[in-house]
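Branched-chain amino acid transport system ATP-binding protein structure dump, as promised
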Amino acid sequence: MTASLSVRDLNVSYRGVPAVSDYAVDLEPGTLTMMLGRNGAGKTSTLRGIVGFLPGETGRSSGRIELLGKPVRRPDPLTLARAGLELIAERNKVFTGMTVDDQLRLIAPDRARKLEVLEYFPRLQERLAVRAGLLSGGERQMLATALALLRSPEVLLVDELSLGLAPAVVRELMQHLRRLADDQGIAILAADQSVSEALAVADRVQVMDDGAVVAEGAIGELDVEGVLDTYLGRE
Ligand code: ATP
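structure tokens r here:
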């Protein structure tokens, strides 16, 4: 099977200081890979390096990226989005003054796709007339996920979906990712710090420390407990 996304030799640095070293991944269709690691381990830089979107003037990235079997010469978020890859960024921006429905309609190619996507988010269905600024943190993340999904991506990169949210909400969001991989065949790479919630839904795990993947494998193959004790500490 060809991977939906392959990354090799990804390096990211800020003002010449390395933040990510020789990162590699293969994402198969319909699978959910969780990237775990402490604050500052390099998760955000990895995801941003893949899409060629580093903050400010100081970030530089290099590497080889293949999306749906085609090499991507100079990655940038817009080109990649057109080619089937969406990034849901950390603390993503939704338009707080617009209602949920207006935002969905802005991006949805047609009504059918909007309704199809909303099937996954019953809570959003109940909040269609509400301005996004009034949504709870979890609902906002659902909206961000739904907006990304409207474009029918084949690859979804997700940064810290669970940031600042209660465990029950995190579990719900993780279940959404699982279903999107299962039902829509999307290849998902999600960086997160909610270890037990992430492990409950993942097919594969990558553990990052100090800018490098220090352990990875399928759930069941990896000595998850040992690795997590060493690199993440117990929460
Ligand atoms: P977090 O959970 O805090 O987002 P992370 O695992 O995503 O952490 P990164 O944010 O990618 O980690 O940070 C990796 C390294 O790069 C850290 O040492 C960080 O200080 C550095 N770094 C990140 N962004 C910048 C930046 N804009 N300028 C300079 N250094 C940065």
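The two ends are 37 Å apart (CA to CA).
lmk if u need the other ones
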